[in-house]
Write a structure and sequence with these properties.
Chain lengths: ~260, ~240
């Protein structure tokens, strides 16, 4: 019990240290530049207190429960014994890694749904769009993007193909899609690339990349272990724009279906 | 008081729903695919309890603290009409929140290891630390610059895709010049620099600015700050690798 409390206390100190720069900047701008009292100050302070305690509990809980097990799992799933490698292979067939792709996709999806910064952006987007962007729709679209991204990233590590080819192709796709996507969604879609990979996703995905690149013959963890996060920030842009395109198409179809009845 | 408790319980249920997928994935792979029991079940439950309470409190804190302060700052700066202070604030927010970001520190240390193994810097702890610190400050400067550019874009109402295209071209060009070993880390660095507290603040700031300026649409113009903040680190990490 005491060690649990002590560890929680340490996490609290680390969290305070992490958010100190932001608090300093906010206080300085408010006091020195704006020189105006904050509306509802007690409420705002309570909010910051909640954020601090909330993050502390969240990170402590992740480090206690999810990260050790998730990382261990990534190691076990990529261990030569599980992959059926005996160390004599010089190359591998990428099709023999079904569980890896499934793990990559599902863990990408699941960690994204739990990602607090995505929850924040989805709340904001729903508020600003007057409810026409549903928080759940957006979050699921992003999570599907991350799932595709991490699975494809695992495929890239297994095959050892160069990362820039994938990313540059992805950029071309994003730009073409931007041309056709509803204007309202474009900025939000670009943002969703950056917000998805944060507190929950990064440690687990990094463990997967490290495990894969260590055990697949011919891969070097130093060089090939990276790139999963890059994939995870690329594909949500496409799925979020795709989600908006689908919603627009569905709305237009519904409008067309309703027309004969009304005319 | 009763309403507050009810709201908290509803929020707790939401958080639980957010955590169900991750619990399901881990349980499925542990119990069925790997065929092993869950180790330290009691510790796991305690950890899940903390995650649940933590997420709930964080979401409440967003609504009460982070969102209102981000928006009120945006309105106050707009009302004051002082462009230079707004830009200084934007830079400080980007730089200050990134320079101490634990994920960035980890990335910088990784990059220093790669550089040492690659032989561009001498393989001793002091040289590595210099390299990592330099990289960290470069990235933080680039995020500061990204927020400044993003704020200017909101004020002027430029279409976001034009700036993103320039950024993408920057990434592609730097990919040709950067040492191949650094590319993976550089591409990853874009995703890791935006932290859990920065994102809501920056989103509220952008939306607040776009709402407070005549002729801007908060949906079209308000978002996009985070996109810039995740693009510039890629360019600068590769640039740093290419130059040093």
């Amino acid at each position: 019990m005491i060690d649990k409390m002590l560890s929680l206390w340490n996490t609290l100190l680390v969290t305070i240290w992490d958010i100190l720069p932001i608090i300093t900047i906010l206080v300085v701008s408010q006091v020195v530049l704006i020189r105006r009292p904050i509306a509802n100050l007690p409420r705002v302070l309570l909010g910051f207190f909640f954020v601090l305690i909330g993050l502390t509990f969240f990170i402590e809980g992740l480090e206690r429960a999810l990260f050790p097990l998730g990382k261990l799992m990534a190691e076990q799933l990529t261990a030569p014994a599980f992959l059926g490698l005996d160390g004599t292979e010089t190359s591998v067939n990428w099709m023999e890694f079904g569980w890896i792709y499934l793990f990559a996709a599902t863990i990408g999806f699941a960690t994204t749904i739990a990602e607090p910064s995505l929850i924040a952006v989805a709340m904001k987007a729903s508020e600003v769009s007057g409810g026409s962007i549903q928080p759940w729709g957006l979050r699921i679209a992003v999570a599907i993007g991350v799932a595709i991204g991490i699975a494809l990233g695992a495929f890239r590590i297994i095959t050892g193909t160069p990362l820039p080819y994938y990313i540059i192709t992805g950029y071309v796709f994003v730009l073409i899609q931007t041309w056709y996507a509803p204007r309202m969604i474009v900025a939000l879609a670009y943002d969703s690339g950056g917000v998805t990979t944060s507190t929950v996703t990064v440690p687990l995905v990094a463990a997967l990349g490290l495990g894969l690149s260590t055990h697949i013959p011919g891969r070097n963890p130093m060089l090939d272990g990276f790139g999963l996060i890059a994939f995870a920030s690329l594909f949500p842009m496409m799925t979020v724009m795709g989600y908006a395109q689908l919603s627009e198409w569905a709305a237009r179809r519904a409008a067309r279906a309703a027309q004969p009845a009304s005319s | 008081m009763k309403a507050l408790i009810l709201q908290f319980l509803a929020s707790l249920a939401d958080s639980f729903r957010d955590l169900v997928p991750i619990i399901a994935v881990i349980a499925f792979f542990q119990l069925i695919v790997l065929g092993q029991p869950i180790p330290n079940l009691l510790d796991m439950l305690w950890g899940m309890f903390l995650v649940l309470i933590g997420l709930t409190l964080f979401v409440q804190g967003l609504k009460l603290g982070l969102f209102p302060i981000g928006e009120s700052l945006a309105w106050d700066f707009a009302a004051k009409g002082s462009l230079i202070w707004l830009l200084i604030f934007a830079f400080a927010l980007g730089f200050g929140t990134t320079v101490a970001e634990p994920a960035l520190i980890a990335v910088a240390n990784e990059a220093a290891n790669v550089a040492a193994v690659g032989g561009w810097i001498s393989d001793d702890p002091a040289a590595r630390e210099d390299y990592a610190d330099g990289l960290r400050i470069t990235v933080a400067l680039s995020v500061g610059a990204a927020i400044v550019i993003g704020v200017l874009r909101i004020l002027k109402g430029f279409p976001i895709q034009n700036l993103i295209i320039i950024g993408y071209i920057g990434v592609v060009v730097m990919t040709f010049f950067a040492p191949p070993e650094i590319i993976g880390i550089a591409y990853d660095s874009g995703g890791v620099t935006t932290s859990t507290i920065t994102v809501p603040l920056v989103a509220a700031l952008g939306v607040g600015l776009a709402s407070s300026i005549e002729g801007r649409n908060p949906m079209i113009d308000g978002f996009g700050l985070i996109a810039f903040a995740s693009l510039t680190p890629m360019i600068f990490v590769m640039g740093y690798g290419a130059l040093l």
